[in-house]
Specification:
With 378 residues, this protein is mostly beta strands. It has 2 helices and 29 strands.
Amino acid sequence: MSKLVPLLAVGLAMLACSSLSSNPAAMDPTGTPTTPADTAAERSATSVPPLATATATPRPPVISAENLDDLSVSLTLTDVDLVRSVAFSPDGSVIAAAMGDEAGIIRFYEASTGLLLQAVDGHDGIVWDLAFSPDGRYLASAGRDGLAQVWDWRTEEIIHSIVLPGEVVSVAFAPDSLSLAVGGVEAWPDAAIWTYAVDRWQPLLTLREYWNIPAIVYSPDGSQIAGGGTSRNVRVWDSNSGSEQLVLYRLGQVTSLAISPDGSTLATGLCERSEDLECTVGGIRMWSLDNGKLIRSFSDFTEWVEAVSFTADGAAVLGASRSGRVRAYATSDGRPLLVTGVPTAIAPGSILTMAISGDGRTLASGGDGRIDLWNVAD
């Protein structure tokens, strides 16, 4: 299930934070540090050999609007738990995956081969979201335990823990890697995005929203930050001053966000219609970041659209649904470019998360007991 489902239950309002004594370098929302309690050795006890084992392989073509017909699953990993978030390292060589319920685990895989490189455990419960810093130094993770952990992912060390009032469900680094945005519950019915200065880890902005923040995204130039979703709204702020620029009002709950490479368009993935608490129509909406107007919409999905992404050239937008269906559309005129799905012979076909590597050559999707790597045939 996606991270929105528990947010709609009665218990959405607030989840108690884990004890600060169990989290190294913990901080409250004002940035006050507390004393580390565990060690890197303890966190690394169950890890596998280090990242240095990764090997170089020939790169596939860049995914584009012209070759989407040739996009298909090239490798499926099934020795995994429920996967809620996947993220690529900036160079595209490593995939981080958040999985599990009772004990959230983050695993790292070689993107070209699917080789497991290492695994870390830094949250008490579900890990909802992951984000690499663009400079490659850090990985941030968001947890139901009210923590945003910042990792030196190469050494498996937690560099900082940010403690928030309720569950944390989304994280995103600014394009210049100088700030980190963390989204989650504040005090029912309030939610917020908190931004922090990287390295100093001091708070910068508090951006107010409602219910919860399942998705955050920075514009490519870092000047804007968009977030929201559970309230059926998405807000866009100036990332420097915190001033609100746009409010995008929706008819359904938004699960995911993506901004086009040129910074002009925001795509939202959502559930447009539900019956008996089950989503029956999922969709993608495209919005102008200049004036907030709806550009076009696609309502071809029969389930939640859990993830949206743009191709590297910005000519196509992709949506992935909980039913395992992937669809793509031309951003210029809305033409359908791709309708496909994950192979279901070896595992259920759900998709709960999706990401495209920074070089645009590989798409990763994760779901119920699987991670799929997608490439265009050379």
